[in-house]
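Hello again,

I reread your note about wanting to compare the complex against the isolated chains. To keep things tidy I'm splitting this into two emails, and this first one only covers the full assembly. Below are the input lines as submitted, including protein chains and any nucleic acid or small-molecule components. They are followed by the predicted structure of everything together. The single-chain runs will come separately.
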Amino acid sequence: MESIELLLNRQSNPALAAPAPVGDDFTNIIKAGMRVPDHAGLIPWHFTVVQGEALATLANVFVDAVKAQGVTDEAKLQKTSKMPFRAPMIIVISTKYQQHEKVPYKEQLISAGCAAHAMQMAAYALGFGAMWRTGDLAFNEDVKRGLNISIEEDIAGFLYIGTPTKQLPTKPEKPFDDHVTFF
Ligand SMILES: Cc1cc2nc3c(=O)[nH]c(=O)nc-3n(C[C@H](O)[C@H](O)[C@H](O)COP(=O)(O)O)c2cc1C
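Full-complex prediction:
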């Protein structure tokens, strides 16, 4: 696939099933995540890969976090417990903030976001589908603890990755006239 074609036509796909990327495909997705712009070379991100039985563990972490918020509604708990199973693999992209006089944390969070995007693009280029999600649980301290992510860090996203079960129609281009000016 031509790089420009990838960039102009990429889109998310929430309809994902096994198989997840393995071997070189998986490694290349991780390498793409490691390759992103990184001010001062701080590598201020961490990738937590969740797959196989760990998806059920993550489901328990999500449900416990929601229960700790006082939610008792069975339908909501059921829905929460199914969330990790929307793909065979989730890569949780979190920050790994480094103190640096020239690189504020918000720049480091941007780099972590770039890593999420780069891994989504790599997955797409390799014929997989992916969907970047956050939601309340990305900002939840119990979820961070359950994933062994320090509560001082931020979760930039849960990148759901798998094999597309549906080929989605290509979305139309977004007009850019109102979003570009020449100064
Ligand atoms: C930081 C971030 C968090 C997101 N969180 C969610 C989410 O929790 N649920 C969701 O449906 N889409 C979420 N999205 C949007 C989707 O990943 C996707 O970009 C959107 O559905 C538009 O589709 P497209 O990527 O094909 O243009 C998020 C996007 C970003 C950048």
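For quick reference: Residues 11-12, 131-135, 157, 171 surround flavin mononucleotide (CB under 6 Å).

B.
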